[in-house]
């Protein structure tokens, strides 16, 4: 299966308008990893909407 931005956009849950990495999963993961964060797609819809991408928020959501 070929991975394309168009295919990724179908399942991308990022709600941050204007995100230059939307649908570009490799760039998104690398960006958030460098900031010691997780991408929004790792979170519930409510967690993603908070824009808190911290490891702590992820753990709180998944306890």
Q: Could you describe the 3D structure shown?
A:
- The model has no long low-confidence stretch (mean pLDDT 94).
- 46% of the residues lie in helices and 0% in strands.
- It has a domain at 20-61.
- The protein is mostly helical and 63 residues long.
Proportion of residues in extended strands: under 5%
Fraction of residues in helix: 40-55%
> What is the H-and-E element order?
HHHH
Q: Extract low-pLDDT stretches.
A: none
Total number of beta strands: 0
Summarize the SSE layout with pairings.
Elements: H1 5-11, H2 25-34, H3 45-49, H4 55-61
Keywords:
mainly alpha; 4 helices
Give me a quick take on this structure:
This protein is mainly α and 63 residues long.
């Amino acid at each position: 299966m070929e991975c394309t931005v168009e295919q990724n956009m179908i399942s991308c849950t990022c709600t941050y308008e204007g995100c230059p990495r939307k649908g570009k999963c490799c760039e998104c993961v690398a960006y958030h990893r460098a900031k010691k964060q997780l991408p929004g797609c790792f979170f519930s819809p409510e967690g993603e909407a908070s824009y808190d991408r911290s490891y702590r928020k992820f753990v709180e959501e998944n306890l």
